[in-house]
């Protein structure tokens, strides 16, 4: 994999503060162009671990709390493993034969596949087994956003209601997970790191999760994770909403597309 930084971005490093205790923040106008071209609004937030630098088109948007939607499956899986609700990524979820929103959910699924197919009913079952009390306790330990959990919403608090997490918090959580700083067992960490891999071609490895919430007529989409290539590690949290006459049949794929374009055109050259 070839590493490619735009000269314009490289020059910005010299203009940044020398305060090593505070991450640098660099605005990248090209990220906004990517979103405009895709007919969506929002923010692409990328954090370069080794340089302690954030890149975004809109840091104000990146600070806004949103429902975590299915990105919560990362935390939900961790908690399920830590509490013993699931044994490992091969734990089986039996389909009860009822019609579900997606055909891919209408089958027996092991945890690993339920994660990648983003099976909401499977993870609602997990949350109910964890229970509100343990869920709250575990979320406090993980320091995961601002989730509003009780017995009445235990199987949907990440999909609707007042739970919120912003893009910086998503990256902070993922960074602590990646650097083995979460208060979880090595076994859980290793299972999750295997389960989260989306692509590994030898040149780079990308791990993460998408999410999509729809509340009060507003669709909001996530793609969060981290990308490792050579000696560099990049964490990302993309959060977008459709604009105007957006073709909603493309919303599921556009979350990843705009993120890959940001990496491809301005930070990394992915082949």
Walk me through this protein's architecture:
The chain has 2 domains: 1-63 and 198-271, DD-peptidase/beta-lactamase superfamily (Beta-lactamase), CATH 3.40.710.10; 67-165, Beta-lactamase (3-Layer(aba) Sandwich), CATH 3.40.710.10. It is globular, with a radius of gyration of 19 Å. The relative contact order is 0.19. A hairpin with a 4-residue loop joins strand 7 (197-200) and strand 8 (205-215). It has 10 helices and 11 strands. The protein has a 7-stranded mixed β-sheet with strand order 2-4-3-10-9-8-7, with helices on both faces. A two-stranded antiparallel sheet has the order 1-11. It has 271 residues and is of the alpha+beta class. Helices cover 37% and strands 23% of the residues. The longest helix is centred in the C-terminal third of the chain and has 17 residues, at 251-267.
Summarize the structure.
The protein has 271 residues and is α+β, with helices and mostly antiparallel strands.
The helix fraction, in percent, is 25-40%
What is the CATH first-level class name of the largest domain? Answer: Alpha Beta
How large a portion of the residues is in β-strands, by DSSP E? 15-25%
Please give the domain count: 2
Record field, number of beta strands: 11
Which residues sit in consecutive blocks of at least 5 with pLDDT less than 50? 1-19
Average pLDDT, rounded to a whole number, is: 91
For the CA atoms, what is the radius of gyration? Answer: 19 Å
Short descriptors:
11 strands; Beta-lactamase; 271 residues; disordered N terminus; seven-stranded mixed beta sheet; alpha+beta; two-stranded antiparallel sheet; 10 helices; 2 domains; 23% strand
